[in-house]
């Protein structure tokens, strides 16, 4: 009897917490969604309602018809995908190398990865601009990918390294005995076991490239390479904020990320059931 | 590699000679990127911190430690530091608490789990330029949705969230927690996945209740994970500024003025790259010193 | 299972390679023609400056994002009127505009011609980021009296001229006629004295409505100056002494100005949130809802009112703002990183012709002759042209951005009652003097 009531209690508490947190996460979003469906005059109404009095899709239409926005969208998609893949691979190799091998300069190098995060952004803006200009990568996709790689590395390398550290060397030894080289061992043994962290790192890299504002503003200010996050800033001008269109564009912009994440989440949660540690 | 050596496998010697090389090969892409992009800003930051930087050609005039004095000696500095600490640690704590609760909930099964998972990721997905303006509007005293709702309940609850020095910082922290907790939750979920089920099961068999399992099994396993996240988030907290800049600009007065904002103003509004770099150097030194403490304890664990 | 991972790895590598290939392809040239690209045929100009295969020199211009309706005709007309030249306009959002421009100039990749708000001028001029235009003016036959004086003066530093106005946008006083009718007050007519203004605000503040709105936000310092400066100057005070060497906020006139502005908030004649508000983002919506009876308003917002007036049933008018408006406008400048100064000058000479600048439908020209041509001959703009006579620009000192910050911080202290108005003024002076030492 006691255990049963305990479980019911636990369940109820879980549900209540769930609802509160979900509401906290969702409500501002809902407000944004509601705003995107309102016309200019109703947006500022003094009796705001969650469900608009006159639902209008003119904001969404305006965004779709805006060829520049579609162009920025495509840029953002390409940059985010490329950046995610590049970051995952480079960070995985780096994390594996730092974790499994000892070589001179290991500790200083590992710590120096962190510096890019410690240095204030403003100390990076002009030097980055100069470096990219010298490499002729200003206003290009590879240029931004490089910047996102560097900015993301402190988290991605350190996180993956921590995860790989926790995997006992015995697991790989079995593979070595079978004649696997380090690369094979990495991909066939280690990767399945770090899948959750890898997926998390991938999502982080994706969001970084998707939402970042200051770097693309400065380093990819050309119309042809502009990203969606910068494009959103165009809805704010000196006459005020065009809420309706900005929210419509922002919600449309969030959809791909949400899809990607719902998919990637499965890897995070399921990952551990395969390739479990033996013994 | 040392483990292999101990076991005396014959593959070990050949491997050792190559291991060095392999290690370098694996880290080569990342180190190349670092060499490209990090060395130059680092050198410049150190250089500018001890010079007066004259634009537009970045001519230098040696001034020794006077940039550092300017940065640390301003009358605002204690308040800025205090606000930064509250901002950093306050938001970190709240994000971890929320993140943990959500991560644990993700693990348990209940109906609506998938919906919950997607919902909790929404705040992270919103671009910060939209999120900061949206929250600013929500907190708006006269036509924001929050006060509108509160007025229906009790008019005295509808206060000037962003305009009152005593509530401004907390209000912005809540917005920051909203945008940041999904990310912490995600990392924690990834970390929780790395804990073998056998450990928790063994503890439960031994009679531990869920709290004890959490405290004695889950947390210790996550320790290194949490440490990494904490360090990175503390560093972020010291440098972040765009949310606060949009919502209050550091006001009213200096009640929400934080270090990141200060650095930004120094560089791009006062055009004082020397002092901004000096602050950057101070932050670097703090991190380096912190590592001198962290690294030895880490080495112990590994051996 | 191993196969599954192998496949995944192969797939990812494949995607990666494909993506980078396509990315390289995209970054070079060939994109769909967004409106902003130079109107002509050649798509191969890419993003590098001056890709002139024929003998065409491309002039790169940075403008604010609200110009997007004008880009096409500007490019076309410029190429027609100036054979051998081509215009490439890169629109930038107002968010972080100054940092964007500064980084570009310092990184050596700035545009050939840069449009700047008067707010950005003091610091950029004093840091040597802009080139002096005096020689160009002499050669092109431009003189100071061709431009709106207050905006022109904002571009002068130590006797040299660095910026030429193409737009001026000082704020006049918008008022809600219906609210005046309800309170049975005659409509305001011309510049009011500050105490008269206070009385009117008081009469209009009833039933949860407010007479006026002030902006004291710290994230938009220029905006706050637009709100505060008219009162300071209207009372006869100023931020700094005549020789710009010390603060002047504790003079009786300055204190009167401070009180005129702060009392509006402390006596509840403006909305409670004003301590964190910006004019266009926060106060304009409230005014459009009939919550605020009077507001400083620039020409770009004036044209948006009718939509709201019809829906919310009110009538409105514009008159001169009490005190002196803050000189606001945008000017063309040549950054110090420009590598084609001659081409930049060709553009500026062309752009500032009254026939050309008056053709735009977006911004009120700062060239005086253009102000009664085309759309701008509309009577509604007369009040703005008149307001320009009662407009002053903020002090042209290199430390202005820091001084501005100090003033706004202390103003907020006075509004939040963390300090009295007198204490705030004392602190302002003290900190400004220390800065200028």
Secondary structure: elements and pairs:
The complex is a heterotrimer of chains A (279), B (303) and C (437).
Chain A: H1 2-36, H2 40-43, H3 58-65, H4 67-100, H5 106-118, H6 121-134, H7 141-165, H8 169-177, H9 182-211, H10 214-219, H11 228-233, E1 236-237, E2 240-241, H12 243-270
Antiparallel strand pairs in A: 1-2
Helix pairs in contact in A: 1-12, 3-12, 4-7, 4-9, 5-7, 7-9, 8-9, 9-12
Chain B: H1 2-7, H2 11-37, H3 39-49, E1 51-54, E2 59-62, H4 66-73, H5 77-107, H6 113-125, H7 128-138, H8 145-153, H9 165-193, H10 197-205, H11 210-239, H12 242-247, H13 259-268, H14 273-302
Antiparallel strand pairs in B: 1-2
Chain C: H1 2-28, E1 57-64, H2 71-81, E2 85-92, H3 97-106, E3 113-117, H4 121-126, H5 134-140, H6 149-154, E4 156-157, E5 160-161, E6 164-168, E7 172-176, H7 177-183, H8 194-204, H9 221-234, H10 252-266, H11 279-288, E8 294-297, H12 299-302, H13 305-312, E9 316-319, E10 325-326, E11 329-333, H14 341-351, H15 354-357, H16 382-387, E12 391-392, H17 400-415, H18 421-436
Parallel strand pairs in C: 1-2, 1-3, 10-12
Antiparallel strand pairs in C: 3-11, 4-5, 6-11, 7-8, 7-9
Index terms:
heterotrimer, A: 279 residues, mainly alpha, MetI-like fold, two-stranded antiparallel sheet, 2 strands, C: 437 residues, alpha/beta, D-Maltodextrin-Binding Protein, domain 2, 2 domains, five-stranded mixed sheet, three-stranded antiparallel sheet, 12 strands, 12% strand
Q: Explain this structure to me?
A:
The complex is a heterotrimer of chains A (279), B (303) and C (437). With 279 residues, chain A is mainly alpha-helical. Chain A has two domains: 1-56; 65-273, MetI-like fold, CATH 1.10.3720. In chain A, 76% of the residues lie in helices and 1% in strands. Chain A has helices at 2-36, 40-43, 58-65, 67-100, 106-118, 121-134, 141-165, 169-177, 182-211, 214-219, 228-233, 243-270; strands spanning 236-237, 240-241. Chain A has a two-stranded antiparallel ribbon with strand order 1-2. The radius of gyration of chain A is 23 Å and the shape is flat. Chain B has 303 residues and is mainly α. In chain B, β1 (51-54) and β2 form a beta hairpin. Chain B has helices at 2-7, 11-37, 39-49, 66-73, 77-107, 113-125, 128-138, 145-153, 165-193, 197-205, 210-239, 242-247, 259-268, 273-302, and strands at residues 51-54, 59-62. Chain C is built from 18 helices and twelve strands. Chain C has helices at 2-28, 71-81, 97-106, 121-126, 134-140, 149-154, 177-183, 194-204, 221-234, 252-266, 279-288, 299-302, 305-312, 341-351, 354-357, 382-387, 400-415, 421-436, and strands spanning 57-64, 85-92, 113-117, 156-157, 160-161, 164-168, 172-176, 294-297, 316-319, 325-326, 329-333, 391-392. By secondary structure, chain C is α/β, with parallel strands linked by helices. In chain C, β1 (57-64), α2 and β2 form a beta-alpha-beta unit. Chain C has two domains: 57-169 and 328-391, 3-Layer(aba) Sandwich (D-Maltodextrin-Binding Protein, domain 2); 172-324 and 399-436, Periplasmic binding protein-like II (D-Maltodextrin-Binding Protein, domain 2), CATH 3.40.190.10. The longest helix of chain C has 27 residues, at 2-28. Chains A and B meet through α1, α4, α5, α6 and α7 of A and α1, α2, α3, α5 and α6 of B.
